[in-house]
């Protein structure tokens, strides 16, 4: 947006790494207060409040409740954790400590009432509102953060906004940085194997937990990173969904780990762990982690049964945390910094982004682009503060405005379909509607919530390379557990003419999707199809 000649390359699909494995939250980080990271909390709360306004199609207020089982627990140990950043013996935070934290958190959130202040309730009032909670609790604290319904789609909106600024902005997924020579960064097309050099005055390494591996490939070995693995499971359990009362349950488990039970897209997201991880190895949600999640659900909702047959999706990622040596993972800063060094093989600068999180991505990008502009001897011409993102632009924010939008855009597709597309794409749904009504359309046979023309639109405009890109990141089909082998084959058939696939490529794409779902997400479509057949 500053007019700088920019190219983005991503070894995989856009947002297929750490960013796709988040807890789907935009939050101020109330627990960072105990780490003394007041600057980060202030920035995070401000960015949360801003994203509720500039990306209202994907970022929504999220009511969050903390069950509390004691009054004074943790009062003595918290100062030691603050001073030493050592976990010590796991000790639950009691009501007094949480009350202090909530008051501090509210003090950072003075933004014209973007979200309400916190509230404390006693046992009886808490159980009246959430009767399935553990009856052993003494209090609940409730505050607001924000949910991020579709992180991958939010990122695609940011990318599309950048590319729309002109021919000086370019991007390519499935292109890997493999080295550096006198001609520039050596790149490889992951799909075709073609290699070429790309010249740039500033090279920015934003590969998250893989930052050190990327720098090593560029001939600039570093030891900046120390990411930890976080896993999640997605449950199709209507009883648990109802028990949450539509709010996130956020609490400290008996081992001291902060975890969550979170209603999302008609399912329940349960997470997360915080485990050391070797970045040369893939991150997977293990059976031991599933047992851990089931244990924490039982702790919070003791009379709600969950089992493995209800898991429709699993995912794991690695947080892009800085190297932390002996520091306890939970106390590693979630803040970010930018490391600078010469390119080495040719004139120029290599910037490496260390740390960061979804909530502060706009502020982080502003900081990073400011450093780049300084290196290039240029000045900022556009501010992104308050700038609407993608389908958040002119998003109807009131019931009346919503009705007007539906009436104006539902003539050809119907009000319910217009509503559905507005929810998926924000006001960019106008472009989708124009596309799907330009030619005859029909609902997918194996997923009636999507149509053939809608899938063709995604393939033609959103850099889809594989079936997996579509099911994992352009739609929420995989997350919600809505896939079948027949649906994969139907999707490949729709994508084929748009992407130029022959029959062999279509078959290979379905096979790849089956393998990725089984290996990375523990989704066995043969078992899913068999279960569906038995229910039918």
TrEMBL record:
Keywords: FAD, Flavoprotein, Oxidoreductase. The keyword Protein biosynthesis does not apply. GO terms for biological process: glycerol-3-phosphate catabolic process. SUPFAM superfamilies: FAD/NAD(P)-binding domain. It comes from the Bacteria. Pfam families: DAO (PF01266), DAO_C (PF16901). This is Glycerol-3-phosphate dehydrogenase/oxidase.
């Amino acid at each position: 947006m500053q007019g700088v000649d920019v190219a983005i390359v991503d070894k995989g699909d856009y947002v297929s790494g750490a960013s796709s494995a988040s807890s789907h939250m935009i939050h101020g980080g109330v627990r960072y207060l105990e780490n003394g990271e007041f600057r980060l909390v202030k920035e995070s709360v401000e960015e949360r409040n801003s994203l509720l306004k500039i990306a209202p199609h994907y970022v929504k207020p999220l009511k969050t409740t903390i069950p509390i089982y004691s009054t004074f627990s943790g009062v003595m140990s918290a100062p030691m954790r603050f001073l030493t950043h050592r976990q010590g013996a796991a000790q639950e935070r009691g009501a007094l400590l949480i009350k202090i934290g909530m008051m501090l958190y509210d003090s950072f959130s003075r933004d014209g009432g973007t979200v309400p202040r916190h509230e404390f309730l006693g046992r009886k009032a808490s159980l009246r509102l959430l009767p399935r909670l553990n009856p052993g609790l003494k209090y609940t604290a409730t505050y607001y953060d924000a949910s991020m319904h579709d992180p991958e789609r939010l990122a695609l909106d940011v990318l599309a906004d950048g590319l729309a600024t002109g021919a000086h902005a370019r991007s390519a997924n499935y292109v890997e940085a493999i080295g550096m020579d006198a001609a520039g960064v050596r790149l490889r097309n992951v799909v075709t194997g073609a290699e070429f050099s790309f010249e740039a005055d500033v090279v920015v390494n934003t590969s998250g937990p893989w930052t050190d591996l990327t720098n090593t490939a560029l001939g600039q070995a570093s030891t900046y990173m120390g990411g930890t693995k976080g896993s999640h499971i997605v449950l199709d359990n209507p009883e648990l969904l109802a028990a949450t009362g539509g709010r996130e349950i956020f609490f400290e488990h008996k081992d001291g780990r902060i975890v969550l039970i979170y209603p999302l897209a008609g399912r329940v997201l349960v997470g997360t762990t915080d485990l050391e991880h070797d970045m040369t190895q893939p991150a997977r949600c293990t059976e031991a982690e599933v047992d851990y999640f089931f244990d924490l659900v039982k702790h919070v909702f003791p009379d709600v049964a969950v089992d493995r047959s209800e898991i429709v999706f699993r995912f794991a990622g690695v947080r892009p945390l800085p190297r932390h040596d002996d520091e306890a993972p939970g106390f590693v800063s979630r803040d970010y910094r930018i490391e600078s060094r010469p390119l080495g093989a040719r004139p120029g600068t290599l910037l490496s982004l260390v740390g960061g999180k979804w909530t502060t991505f706009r502020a982080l990008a502003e900081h990073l682009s400011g450093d780049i502009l300084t290196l290039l001897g240029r000045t900022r011409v556009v501010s992104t503060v308050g700038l609407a993102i993608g389908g958040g632009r002119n998003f109807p924010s009131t019931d009346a405005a919503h009705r007007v939008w539906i009436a104006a855009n539902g003539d050809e597709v119907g009000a319910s379909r217009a509503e559905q597309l507005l929810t998926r794409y924000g006001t960019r749904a106008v472009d989708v509607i124009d596309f799907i009504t330009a030619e005859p359309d029909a609902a997918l046979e194996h997923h009636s919530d999507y149509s053939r023309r809608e899938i063709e639109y995604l393939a033609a405009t959103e850099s889809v390379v594989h079936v997996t890109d579509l099911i994992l990141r352009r739609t929420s089909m995989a997350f919600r557990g809505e896939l079948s082998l027949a649906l994969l084959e139907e999707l490949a058939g729709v994508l084929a003419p748009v992407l130029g696939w022959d029959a062999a490529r279509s078959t290979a794409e379905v096979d790849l999707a089956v393998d990725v779902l089984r290996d990375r997400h523990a989704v066995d479509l043969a078992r899913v199809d068999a279960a569906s057949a038995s229910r039918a």
